[in-house]
Write a structure and sequence with these properties.
It is built from 14 helices and seven strands. The protein has 431 residues and is α+β, with helices and mostly antiparallel strands. InterPro entries: AIP/AIPL1/TTC9, PPIase_dom_sf, TPR-like_helical_dom_sf.
Length: 431
C-alpha cells in the first residue's frame, strides 16, 4: 500500500506544513510575482481531524472473558461472537493508524459567495500558514495543506471576524441593525464565548487548508481597502470618488454612482477616526475655535514633522463638508434604487450636525413616505422643511417648493387611505 506521506511536499523545513497537489495550475498563466503588496485571490476550505472511531473488541460484548469468570475456551470457540470479535481485532491490528474523522470548519464561499478571499502579501497576515501556503501555488492550482498548530495561530480570530461579517450581511438584507461584541467585562466575554463556542475546538490543533488560487494582482492593479492606506491618501482620494459619483448620477447610472459614494464614505469615515484628525478635533475644542488646528503633542521631531505635513493639508471643515455631501448623495442614489431603509440613517447623521439641512429633511421624508410605516415621521420632516423654506425666502415657484408640494400631495393621499383603512377596521369591530 502506498504511503500517503510520499505524495506530500514540505513547505517548511521542519515539516510543520505539508502540501499535496490536487490539480495543476493553468500553464498559460505566468507564475505569480510574490512581491510585497501583491493581492492573492483564492477560495479555501478548512478542515480539522477529530478522534477516530473506536474499534470493536471482545470487551463490551456482555461476555466475561477474564480469568476470574472461570470461563475457558478449550480447543474451539466458546460462543457465537468469538469469530467476529477475532476478525475485528485482526483488522484493527493490520491498521496501525485508525482513520480520524475529517470535519469541515470553514469555507470562504460561505463567508462571501460573491468574491474570493483576498490576502495582501508581505504584511504579516494573522494566519501565517495561509500566506506561506498560497506562495507555493500557481494560478488555477488546487492543493491541500496540513498545517501544525504553531502555523495556524490567528485562524480562530479570523473565523470570528468573518462569521460576524456574514451575520451582519444577512441582517442588513433583512433591514436589521448589525451587531458586534462590546465591552471587556466578564459578562461580555461570556456572551462572546457562547456565541463562538463552535470555534473553541480549533485552538491549538492542526488544520488542513484546501486552497484554489484564482489569481494574483500586482500592488498597483487593485483598489486598496481603507485600513491599508495612509490617512492623507484616503483624504486625497475621497473627493475624486465623489466627483466620479456625481458624473455617473447625472448620466442616470445610479448603481455605479452608489459604488463611488460608498467608497468615498468609507474613506472619509476612516479619516475621521484616525488619530491625526481626532487630535485636531481635541485641539479645536480645547482652544474654542471653529477653524482647523492641529494638536500640540509632545513627541520626537520626526513624528512632529510628519504630523504637521498631514495637518497642513487636512482641513476639518472640508472633511466635514465632504462627509455631509457624500451622505446626501448616497441617500439620493438609494432612493433612486428603491432602498429607502438605507436613506434614513445617512440623512439623520447629516441632521445631527445641520438640523436645518434642506436636502436631508426632504430625502428622509421621502424615505419615510416610501416605506409607508411611519407616515407621521414623513409629515414631521415635510412640515419642518416647509417652515425652513418659508423662513429662508425661497421662491414659491422654485424647485424646492415644487418638489415639496408633490411629496405633500402624495403623503396626503396615503394618509387618507390609512385613515379609511382604520375607519373600516374599527367599524367592523363594533358591528
Amino acid at each position: 500500500m502506498e504511503d500517503p506521506m510520499s505524495k506530500m511536499d514540505k513547505v517548511t523545513p521542519d515539516g510543520g506544513i505539508l502540501k499535496i497537489l490536487l490539480r495543476d495550475g493553468d500553464k498559460t498563466k505566468p507564475r505569480p510575482q510574490w512581491v510585497r503588496g501583491a493581492n492573492a485571490r483564492f477560495h479555501y476550505q478548512v478542515y480539522t481531524y477529530g478522534k477516530p472511531m473506536k474499534e470493536s473488541s471482545p470487551q463490551g460484548s456482555g461476555h466475561d472473558h477474564s480469568a476470574k469468570s472461570g470461563h475457558t475456551h478449550g480447543n474451539g470457540p466458546c460462543c457465537s461472537h468469538t469469530r467476529t470479535a477475532t476478525k475485528d481485532v485482526e483488522v484493527s491490528a493490520n491498521r496501525e493508524f485508525p482513520q480520524p474523522k475529517r470535519k469541515k470548519v470553514g469555507d470562504s464561499r460561505e463567508d462571501d459567495p460573491e468574491r474570493p478571499f483576498e490576502l495582501r502579501i508581505g504584511f504579516s497576515f494573522s494566519v501565517k500558514a495561509m500566506e506561506m501556503c498560497v506562495k507555493t501555488m500557481t494560478v488555477g492550482e488546487r492543493s491541500r495543506f496540513l498545517c501544525m498548530p504553531e502555523y495556524c495561530e490567528g485562524y480562530v480570530q479570523l473565523a470570528k471576524v468573518l462569521k460576524q461579517e456574514r451575520e451582519n450581511r444577512n441582517k442588513a438584507k433583512q433591514g436589521l441593525p448589525t451587531s458586534r461584541v462590546h465591552g471587556c467585562c466578564a459578562h461580555a466575554l461570556h456572551q462572546e464565548m457562547e456565541s463562538q463556542s463552535d470555534l473553541a475546538e480549533l485552538y491549538n490543533v492542526p488544520l488542513e487548508f484546501e486552497i484554489e488560487l484564482v489569481d494574483v494582482q500586482s500592488p498597483d492593479s487593485y483598489v486598496r481597502e481603507p485600513w491599508e492606506m495612509e490617512t492623507i491618501d484616503k483624504y486625497r482620494e475621497a473627493p475624486i470618488r465623489k466627483e466620479e459619483g456625481g458624473k455617473l448620477y447625472k448620466e442616470g447610472r445610479y448603481p455605479q454612482a452608489l459604488e463611488k459614494y460608498t467608497r468615498a464614505l468609507a474613506l472619509l469615515e476612516s479619516v475621521s477616526m484616525s488619530s491625526t484628525v481626532m487630535d485636531m478635533q481635541r485641539a479645536q475644542v480645547a482652544d474654542g475655535k471653529k477653524s482647523r488646528q492641529s494638536a500640540d503633542l509632545e513627541s520626537d521631531s520626526q513624528t512632529e514633522d510628519t504630523k504637521s505635513e498631514v495637518d497642513n493639508e487636512i482641513n476639518l471643515d472640508t472633511l466635514n463638508a465632504l462627509m455631509q455631501a457624500c451622505r446626501l448623495n448616497y441617500a439620493a442614489c438609494k432612493l433612486k434604487l428603491g432602498d429607502p431603509e438605507s436613506v434614513i440613517p445617512q440623512c439623520t447623521e447629516v441632521l445631527k450636525q445641520d438640523p436645518t439641512n434642506v436636502k436631508a429633511l426632504f430625502r428622509r421624508g421621502q424615505a419615510f413616505l416610501q416605506i409607508g410605516r411611519d407616515l407621521d415621521l414623513a409629515q414631521h420632516d415635510f412640515e419642518k422643511l416647509r417652515n425652513i423654506l418659508e423662513a429662508g425666502n425661497y421662491a414659491k415657484a422654485g424647485p424646492e417648493f415644487t418638489e415639496l408640494r408633490k411629496e405633500e400631495q402624495l403623503l396626503e393621499t396615503k394618509l387618507r387611505a390609512h385613515r379609511e383603512k382604520e375607519r373600516r377596521m374599527f367599524s367592523n369591530i363594533f358591528k
